[in-house]
């Protein structure tokens, strides 16, 4: 967990200060009005070590913050290693100035652009503050993908992508006008208390932990039963809702008919181990394709619900994984889930898996968030599965399974204040341990339309080859591995510790602190491979670790 010791210390300090100061921190600084909107964030900014007072018992309430002071705070907040090059990067920031190292460090970490002047003594504007924060978080490439994003502000004409991210993260808000419009006032100077508010919002999300860890246990998962025992909950993928010959829905848990969602032999070994570990286990029920229309129909709804209630049996509850729901099934699915929740015993959990509404319109996020205890957002599997023959011989080899901009757009949708899940603690971001392999020629051009899916064990072995090269694609926030095998060349996009944590950290910026992994049995935990120990990375960010 990030900065756990410091966080505990700060929490103790905060509790002690609250005992001594009944108001929202008015006693710490003599110039902060008691009950002021900024009193709490000023207190937090001080406790977090972001902004200190002026040394005379005042905070500098109402004073403007300059650009040099702001980048100094950024360096402190992100814990960057300070640099002090001999030659200055800006003509107005010479060596020897108190802010010299902070400005150079902010530049080295991408928070600011290079140029002739930095203007250290100028007041920091609301816009520059937001842009620097987004860049400091490492989201410059993501911001570029949102250059045409809609914003509620009528006065934003530049840096639209950066401000879109800051707005969706809840870092910035607008100023309501008499005519009902909302302005951001991008060029206005920021006061110290306004800076404190923005910094605290980012700090708390940047340092957030994974509060809820869930995994899917399906085929060939027992090899990682110990990992399952360290999760908060597991969904057992041992059921599929099917239709019998008469068109009546039933829960199929056998391998008949080629059903891969069947109870495996020796299932009790897994359930006994998880029970001993105290891990709640839901039965995950899958359905997809043309069966869904019949399953969700008014005539079959009651039968399907009764079958599911019976299947819940000794499990902690149900995880409904009905995939590919089109807009025409939006209302029927909501009605189905409402009926299922009403029929299930109160102590049984009901969770639901949903897909991004960019492709599917059948998931009413708002309603499902009210009905279900957890809403698992499956923001993955964006890769092309059928490549055009015309791409062969070209450089068209970008095929990341879950590019960060797509995950961002899915998070924007599911956290929408009007149509998204109202209680963000119910949202769980799902990541999929997958790979997308392409055959390329010696020049890196696409050599075939075939797609390969090397298993983690295979990839870990390939990483150790002398000709294997791991490359980080900053735009997708996804790595790819190039290597040769049997005289042929491959480029494989895959998920590793860095890419999985990039998604988890992005979710934190939306206030989403739940993570689900598909699936146990293939979670990379290779300490001797290149950034391929996903499990350790996840555990490091677990709450309480």
Automatic annotation (TrEMBL):
GO terms for biological process: carbohydrate metabolic process. InterPro entries: Chitinase_II/V-like_cat, Chitinase_insertion_sf, GH, Glyco_hydro18_cat, SLH_dom. Residues 25-85, 86-147 form the SLH domain. Residues 1-25 form the signal peptide. It holds the Pfam family SLH. One of its GO terms (molecular function) is chitin binding. It comes from the Bacteria. Keywords: Repeat, Signal. PANTHER family: CHITINASE DOMAIN-CONTAINING PROTEIN 1, CHITINASE DOMAIN-CONTAINING PROTEIN 1 FAMILY MEMBER. This is S-layer homology domain-containing protein. It comes from Pseudoflavonifractor capillosus.
């Amino acid at each position: 967990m990030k900065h756990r010791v410091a966080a505990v210390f700060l929490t103790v300090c905060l509790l002690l200060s609250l005992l001594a100061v009944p108001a929202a921190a008015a006693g710490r600084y003599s110039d902060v009005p008691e009950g002021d909107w900024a009193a709490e964030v000023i207190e937090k900014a001080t406790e977090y070590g972001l902004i200190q007072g002026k040394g005379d018992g005042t905070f500098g309430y109402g004073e403007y913050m300059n650009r040099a002071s702001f980048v100094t705070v950024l360096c402190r907040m992100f814990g960057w290693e300070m640099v002090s090059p001999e030659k200055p990067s800006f003509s107005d920031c010479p060596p020897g100035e108190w802010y010299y190292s902070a400005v150079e460090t902010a530049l080295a970490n991408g928070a600011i652009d290079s140029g002739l002047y930095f203007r250290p003594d100028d007041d920091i504007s609301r816009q520059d503050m937001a842009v620097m924060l987004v860049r400091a978080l490492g989201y410059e490439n993501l911001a570029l993908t949102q250059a045409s994003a809609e914003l509620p502000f009528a006065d934003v004409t530049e840096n639209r992508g950066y401000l879109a991210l800051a707005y969706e993260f809840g870092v910035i808000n607008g100023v309501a006008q008499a005519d009902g419009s909302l302005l951001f006032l991008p060029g206005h100077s920021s006061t110290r208390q306004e800076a404190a508010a923005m910094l605290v919002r980012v700090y708390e999300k940047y340092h957030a932990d994974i509060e809820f860890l869930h995994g899917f246990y399906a085929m060939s998962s027992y090899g990682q039963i110990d990992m399952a025992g360290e999760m908060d909950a597991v969904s057992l993928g041992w059921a599929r809702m099917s239709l019998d010959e008469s068109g009546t829905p039933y829960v199929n848990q056998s391998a008949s008919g080629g059903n891969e969602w069947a109870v495996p032999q020796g299932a009790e070994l897994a359930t006994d181990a998880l029970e001993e570990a105290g891990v709640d286990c839901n039965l995950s029920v899958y359905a997809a394709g043309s069966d869904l229309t019949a399953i969700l129909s008014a005539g079959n709804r009651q039968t399907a619900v009764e079958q599911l209630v019976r299947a819940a049996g000794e499990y902690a509850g149900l995880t409904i994984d009905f995939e590919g729901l089109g807009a025409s099934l939006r209302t029927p699915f909501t009605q189905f889930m409402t009926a299922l929740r009403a029929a299930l015993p109160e102590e049984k959990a009901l969770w639901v898996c949903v897909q991004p509404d960019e492709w599917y319109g059948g998931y009413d996020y708002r309603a499902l968030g009210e009905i279900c205890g957890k809403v698992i957002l499956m923001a993955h599997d964006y890769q092309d599965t059928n490549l055009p023959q015309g791409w062969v011989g070209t450089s068209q080899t970008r095929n990341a399974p879950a590019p960060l901009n797509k995950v961002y757009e899915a998070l924007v949708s599911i956290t929408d204040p009007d149509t998204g899940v109202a209680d963000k603690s119910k949202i769980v971001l799902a990541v999929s341990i997958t790979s997308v392999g392409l055959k390329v020629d010696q020049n890196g051009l696409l050599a075939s339309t075939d797609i390969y899916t090397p298993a983690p064990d295979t990839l870990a072995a390939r990483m150790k080859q002398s000709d294997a090269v791991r490359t980080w694609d900053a735009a997708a926030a996804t790595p790819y591995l190039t290597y040769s095998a049997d005289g042929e060349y491959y480029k494989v996009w895959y998920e590793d510790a860095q890419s999985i944590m990039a998604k988890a950290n992005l979710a934190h910026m939306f206030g989403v602190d739940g993570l689900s992994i598909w699936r146990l049995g293939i979670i990379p935990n290779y300490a001797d491979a290149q950034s391929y120990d996903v499990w350790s990375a996840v555990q490091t960010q677990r709450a309480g670790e």
